[in-house]
Amino acid sequence: MSGAGGHAGRACTAGPRLVVAGALIDGSRLLAAQRSSPPALAGLWELPGGKVEDGEDPVEALRRELREELGLEVTVGAVVPGPDGGDWPVLGGHMMRVWLCTARGGSPRALDHAQVAWVDVRDVDAVPWLAPDLPIVRAVVDAVSMEPFSYSRTGDE
User: Fold this and answer.
1) What angle do CA 61, 67, 71 make, to 5 degrees?
2) What are the extents of the domains in the chain?
3) Which terminus of the chain has a smaller tally of CB atoms within 10 A, N or C?
4) What gap in Å lies between CA 146 and CA 40, rounded to an integer?
């Protein structure tokens, strides 16, 4: 399957580890997930997602992580491009690829976080984000604020 922005294929094992995250959008709201661990990060908020396993397709890793963390199936849209059009640097020397997503039904549940909450995109500073996630959140806000808003598909049917 081909990913948006030229990010197709399997995860690469050389270099920084790839992590994936979903910017789940519901109208003018963005889903935030509050960390429960480790202690140094507990209470801070992030975009839900996780590590890509060796040989795993990044989009499939995103779907798996959101099922595991939120109990949701999602429609995956466009990649939110990071600095220089690539991935985003995050904690631990990892690189994060972020996609705009929508839930295919149901409500997100905090299966791996202290809690989840919908945050109005006009008030994303209402929660304390992890420092590396804040520029990503701002890019998501910019992406969903564009008129007209539409998802560029990555192969979802």
Assistant:
1) 165
2) 16-145
3) C
4) 35
Whether the pLDDT of residue 8 is over 70: the answer is no
This prediction's pTM: 0.83
Please, are residues 108 and 116 in contact by the beta-carbon 8 Å criterion?
A: yes
Sequence-distant (6+) residues with CB within 8 A of 104 are 72, 73, 74, 75
Please classify residue 69 by burial: count the beta carbons closer than 10 Å to its beta carbon, then call 0-12 exposed, 13-18 middle and 19+ buried. buried
Query: What pLDDT, on a 0 to 100 scale, did the predictor assign at position 14?
Result: 59
3-state secondary structure of 132: coil
Alpha carbon distance 133, 139 (integer Å): 10
Task: Name the CATH superfamily housing domain 16-145.
Answer: Nucleoside Triphosphate Pyrophosphohydrolase (3.90.79.10)
Residue 48 exposed, middle or buried by CB count within 10 Å (0-12, 13-18, 19+): buried
Q: What is the pLDDT, as a whole number, of residue 146?
A: 73
